[in-house]
């Protein structure tokens, strides 16, 4: 009884301190440091976690139970912990597999087609696709509404990449190249138009079209040792830029990528100068 | 009867491998569709279950032998009993390892026949000779170790310990051998400096050794070995908790209280090395192909790492809370004091180390010298300054630092699934501003970078060490009555084991997912429709399912141990008397 009463006291006291801490952190993160709302929530959650921990620190001993009661307690505990973990993982932002599936399709399909077995499967599928396509065209002719046509186009293209890549329609080389840039995830190390690599892993490429000829870019992609971006000696020596593209990309894909890169001619963005190494 | 069953299981495991090797020789095997879970899900679940069992049977013997030696050297029967009871569970779980291993290769062959055949043919000596041989040796030595336990006592004890050491050598060898193909799938060996491309090299001149000795092989070996000890330690804690709950008398309660304590100590002790081993593994993966790093930390897998941060934080919170509960019941805790300098040092670490490492990124030499100087400064100051703080205060600040450390660990650049493509308006990202403290400024963006994460990891490790030092001081000066620990402590042990397993399934998935749409990274495309990254939410159901399945089986094994141990529960176990235990 005594312990219980003093525990209630602890809960009240710590709870009060916790709420004060949460409010202070929320106000500071919002008005003083201008964190966006998700981070404000994060701060408040930490304050609440801290409150819980500090209450537990001062909690009186739990009285032992045994037998069926202990087993029930255990099972209940497992259920709660499981649900909390799942809830936590589900509350975080989720990557949409559809986006990735669309990406993978574009990368892997040509490779599959290249294998002997793939060719036969492709033929079978092609017939089916042609069939579906003719159906779609028929439908489109029926309605001839611009809205609907757009929707059909989108559904054929699958979920596009998360970025602002335009659809690679009509065999436009530059658009295809931009798509390759997304597919090969160059954005994880490079920035174009302020988007990409949060850490300065590699140089920005905004003005690369003015600095490198297409042949030189191709050389860089096929063999990253051939060129070095000025000011990136350390990264160059650590061989950060992968040398796998000559194996993973076809000639056409590389040509498209290079065509896209050569359109990047924004002289207002400081882009490191390439230096010939080999 | 059960002995026979085990042997049958082990033989079945071997047969599976044999069949697999033979099957791999057949031309063009066809894939089957796995109902409900899908092919990838099926392989995922079985492989993860197998690794969990394997991790325990490899991790546990490491400290079992140490415990046996401690018991022998110090003539402390508790260590001997702990070693023996953990071994008993190990023996039971060993057959589960064989069973799930067999199932694993079987499911793999049924669902990914071409890949499996390809792998087996490329690592033929591993799958057809080394692995089965090691497996047979391991079986023999484990059963010898277990069944000669009582016979090899007294003057023959050393022989038994040698058997245990042999068991560990074979176990480690097994791990190292199978990590070869595993690591190969992540980082297939490249031909040194240009010339041949990856495919040509692997398919033509690469020797078995070339393929085994790839970038992530040793980092994986190290990380798994340490991880296995952590895992074994926490499962030992779990065993202790279960047996404590089931204990009928004070004697047993005293023993299992101590048992759980040692399990936690082992788990936490090895846990301290894990962030560094993990760092090494990540470093080597990135050294192999620098695009893996952003893929893990900033792209599709970034929220998996967010979850890992949360789990590691919870594990550190849990284990420190357990230390606190162990400490709370020590009589005379009120008199224990520590230098105020220690407290200030502890509180200063996240900020100071983050600043140092931002200025001098590891492996700059100042990245090591300056932190060492900083710690030394406080140690020296502590010699001269008389101020002290009580244990209670110190512990509270310690917990505050664990929470702050974890908060830093978990601060992402942005709350988005793909960091590099965060929305332009900054609505989900860390703000651009900075915090000015007069003499230094920290920009918010730095909180999401490696120096901050390292400082956070170091804080967690440092706080835990200080807590243990405090605990030891309390033990030396106060009196402890084993068996009287807060009942809640058993649930902390249960929680730690559960979280450790969950984290392991999470990280195992992360390593597999870094291969993206490849079976073998950059080499063998995965043409199946399931080559995409599952969502974290979906994955968390799989993690939980696997963890719970594993838990049910382990719980069953522990109950079995309990039942069979009843008849001959040694009466010479630790008495419920106060013991001044500084014996570790
Ligand atoms: C306290 C911190 C850490 C804990 C508790 C931890 C725990 C674990 C455990 C138990 C495993 C499974 C080992 C096995 O399969 O035998 C694992 C695997 C792994 N860890 Fe960690 N780890 C920690 C830190 C890190 C860090 C900092 C990284 C990298 C940034 C990392 C990356 C990985 C990877 C990639 C795997 C997959 C290995 C595999 O399962 O095959 N870990 N971790």
Q: How would you describe this protein?
A:
The complex is a heterodimer of chains A (278) and B (584). By secondary structure, chain A is mostly helical. Chain A has three domains: 2-91; 118-183; 188-276, no CATH class. Chain A has helices at 2-32, 37-57, 67-91, 97-114, 116-143, 146-157, 173-183, 208-211, 214-222, 233-237, 245-248, 251-261; strands at residues 191-192, 195-196, 227-229, 274-276. In chain A, the strands form two sheets. A two-stranded antiparallel ribbon of chain A has the order 1-2. In chain A, strand 1 (191-192) and strand 2 (195-196) form a beta hairpin. The longest helix of chain A has 31 residues, at 2-32. Chain A is extended. The model of chain A is unreliable at 148-170 (pLDDT under 50). By secondary structure, chain B is an all-alpha fold. Chain B has two domains: 2-31 and 40-300 and 498-571, no CATH class; 330-420 and 428-480, no CATH class. In chain B, 71% of the residues lie in helices and 3% in strands. The longest helix of chain B has 37 residues, at 38-74. Chain B is globular, with a radius of gyration of 25 Å. Mean pLDDT of chain B is 85; it is low at 567-584. Classes of the chains: A mainly alpha (278), B mainly alpha (584). The interface between A and B is large, with 72 and 83 residues.
């Amino acid at each position: 009884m005594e312990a219980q009463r003093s525990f209630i006291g602890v809960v009240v006291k710590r709870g009060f301190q916790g709420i004060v801490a949460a409010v202070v952190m929320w106000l500071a993160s919002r008005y003083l440091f201008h964190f966006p709302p998700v981070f404000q929530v994060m701060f408040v959650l930490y304050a609440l976690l801290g409150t819980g921990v500090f209450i537990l620190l001062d909690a009186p001993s739990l009285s032992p139970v045994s037998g069926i009661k202990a087993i029930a307690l255990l099972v209940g505990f497992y259920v709660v912990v499981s649900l909390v973990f799942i809830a936590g993982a589900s509350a975080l932002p989720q990557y949409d597999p559809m986006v990735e599936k669309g990406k993978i399709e574009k990368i892997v399909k040509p490779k599959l087609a290249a294998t002997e077995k793939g060719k036969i499967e492709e033929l079978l599928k092609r017939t089916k696709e042609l069939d579906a396509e003719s159906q779609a065209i028929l439908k489109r002719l029926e309605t001839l509404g611009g809205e609907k046509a757009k929707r059909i186009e989108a559904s054929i293209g699958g979920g596009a990449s998360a970025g602002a890549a335009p659809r690679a329609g009509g065999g436009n080389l530059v658009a295809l190249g931009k798509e390759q840039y997304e597919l090969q995830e160059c954005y994880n190390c490079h920035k174009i138009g302020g988007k990409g690599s949060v850490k300065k892993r590699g140089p920005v490429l905004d003005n690369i079209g003015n600095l490198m000829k297409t042949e030189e870019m191709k050389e860089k992609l096929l063999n990253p040792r051939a060129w070095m971006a000025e000011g990136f000696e350390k990264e160059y020596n650590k061989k950060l830029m992968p040398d796998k593209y000559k194996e993973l990309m076809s000639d056409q894909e590389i040509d498209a990528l290079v065509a896209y890169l050569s359109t990047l001619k924004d002289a207002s963005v400081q882009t490191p100068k390439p230096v010939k190494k080999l | 009867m059960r002995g026979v069953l085990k042997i049958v299981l082990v033989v079945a495991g071997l047969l599976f491998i044999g069949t697999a090797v033979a099957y791999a020789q057949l031309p063009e095997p066809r894939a089957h569709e796995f109902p409900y879970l899908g092919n990838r899900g099926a392989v995922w679940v079985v492989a993860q279950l197998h690794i969990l069992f394997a991790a325990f049977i490899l991790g546990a013997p490491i400290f079992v032998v140490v415990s046996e030696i401690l018991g022998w050297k110090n003539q402390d029967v508790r260590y001997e009993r702990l070693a023996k009871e953990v071994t008993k569970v190990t023996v039971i779980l060993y057959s589960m390892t064989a069973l799930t291993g067999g199932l694993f290769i079987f499911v793999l062959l049924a669902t990914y026949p071409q890949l499996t055949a390809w792998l087996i043919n490329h690592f033929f000596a591993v799958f057809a000779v080394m692995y089965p041989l090691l497996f047979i040796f391991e079986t023999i030595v484990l059963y010898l170790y277990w069944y000669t336990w009582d016979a090899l006592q007294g003057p023959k004890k050393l022989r038994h310990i040698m058997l245990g050491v042999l068991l560990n050598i074979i176990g480690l060898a097994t791990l190292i051998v199978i990590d070869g193909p595993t690591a190969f799938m992540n980082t297939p060996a490249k031909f040194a400096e240009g010339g041949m491309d990856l495919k040509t090299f692997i398919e033509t001149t690469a020797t078995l050794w070339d393929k085994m000795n790839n970038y992530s092989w040793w980092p994986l070996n190290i990380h798994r070995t340490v991880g296995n000890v952590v895992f074994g330690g926490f499962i030992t804690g779990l065993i202790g908790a279960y047996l404590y709950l089931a204990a009928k008398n004070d004697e047993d309660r005293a023993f299992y209280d101590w048992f759980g304590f040692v399990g936690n100590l082992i788990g936490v002790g090895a846990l301290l090395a894990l962030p560094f081993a993990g760092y090494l593994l990540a470093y080597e993966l990135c050294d192999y192909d620098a695009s893996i790093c952003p893929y893990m930390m900033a792209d599709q897998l970034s929220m998996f790492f967010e979850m890992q941060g949360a789990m590691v934080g919870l594990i550190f919170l849990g284990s420190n809370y357990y230390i606190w509960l162990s400490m709370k019941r020590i009589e005379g805790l009120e008199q224990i004091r520590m230098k105020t300098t220690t407290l200030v040092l502890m509180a200063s670490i996240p900020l100071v180390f983050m600043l140092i490492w931002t200025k001098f990124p590891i492996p700059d030499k100042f990245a090591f010298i300056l932190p060492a100087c900083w710690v030394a400064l406080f140690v020296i100051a502590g010699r001269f300054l008389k101020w002290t703080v009580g244990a209670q205060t110190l512990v509270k600040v310690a917990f505050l630092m664990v929470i702050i450390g974890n908060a830093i660990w978990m601060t992402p650049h942005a709350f988005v699934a793909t960091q590099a493509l965060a929305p332009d308006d900054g609505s989900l990202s860390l703000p651009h501003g900075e915090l000015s403290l007069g003499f230094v400024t920290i920009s918010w963006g730095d909180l999401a970078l490696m120096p901050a994460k390292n400082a956070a990891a170091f804080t967690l490790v440092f706080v835990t060490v200080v807590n243990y030092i405090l605990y030891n001081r309390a033990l030396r000066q106060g009196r402890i009555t084993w068996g009287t620990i807060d009942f809640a402590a058993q649930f902390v042990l249960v929680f730690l084991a559960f979280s450790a397993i969950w984290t392991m399934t999470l990280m195992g998935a992360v390593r597999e997912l870094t291969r993206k749409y490849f079976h073998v990274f950059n080499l063998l495309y995965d043409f199946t429709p399931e080559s995409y990254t599952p969502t974290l939410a979906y994955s968390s159901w799989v993690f939980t399912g696997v963890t719970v399945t594993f838990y049910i089986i382990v719980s069953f094994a522990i109950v079995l141990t309990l039942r069979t141990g009843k008849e001959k529960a040694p009466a010479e176990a630790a008495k419920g008397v106060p013991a001044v235990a500084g014996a570790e």
